[in-house]
Automatic annotation (TrEMBL):
One of its GO terms (molecular function) is DNA binding. It comes from Streptomyces curacoi. This is IclR family transcriptional regulator. PANTHER family: HELIX-TURN-HELIX TRANSCRIPTIONAL REGULATOR, ICLR FAMILY (PTHR30136), HTH-TYPE TRANSCRIPTIONAL REPRESSOR ALLR (PTHR30136:SF24). Keywords: DNA-binding, Transcription, Transcription regulation. The lineage of its organism: Bacteria, Bacillati, Actinomycetota, Actinomycetes, Kitasatosporales. One of its GO terms (biological process) is negative regulation of DNA-templated transcription.
Amino acid sequence: MTAETSQTLDRGLRVLKLLADTDHGLTVTELSNKLGVNRTVVYRLLATLEQHALVRRDLGGRARVGLGVLRLGRQVHPLVREAALPALRSLAEDIGATAHLTLVDGTEALAVAVVEPTWTDYHVAYRAGFRHPLDRGAAGRAILSARQQPMREPGYTLTHGELEAGASGAAAPLLGVTGVEGSVGVVMLADAVPERVGPRVVDAAREVAEALR
């Protein structure tokens, strides 16, 4: 901490980060131990965050991230989109297929950035804002794969005909980006994805992840 920073704000942000990293919530005692402050301070922090809907407490007293963070999160999409566009453009032009960045939005996959190739005679029309279940399509399946094996080396997922008849997809998860869960992929009109596409998508996902760190 320096003279220009706020200790209270710093602690509040640390609370949010700790809660974001757990699925089952944390008690006041657990937060107190992790922060190295007494329980009274934690109570005050939680009460303030609750007023802004950034934290909620269940009947058992465990604190969890509140729905208010979703309103803040929606403003992140344009920033993420801007950071990802150079890698997506390169991927779309290199492969000759529509490239996309997809993020998790609740229980769905949401395309937040899409780049179409400029030199092909035809390609799949895929629009930003398109949603689909996480368990359908390469983009969602790549995200689920990363959830199931978080320590695995980056890989890619291939699908065919799951979202659009005659279309195939390849996607790789974004890894190592705190607070962002998503994937980078391509969709093309083909019966099968060419062999070189998978590794190229992995490289693009790595480029996007580096741009977001």
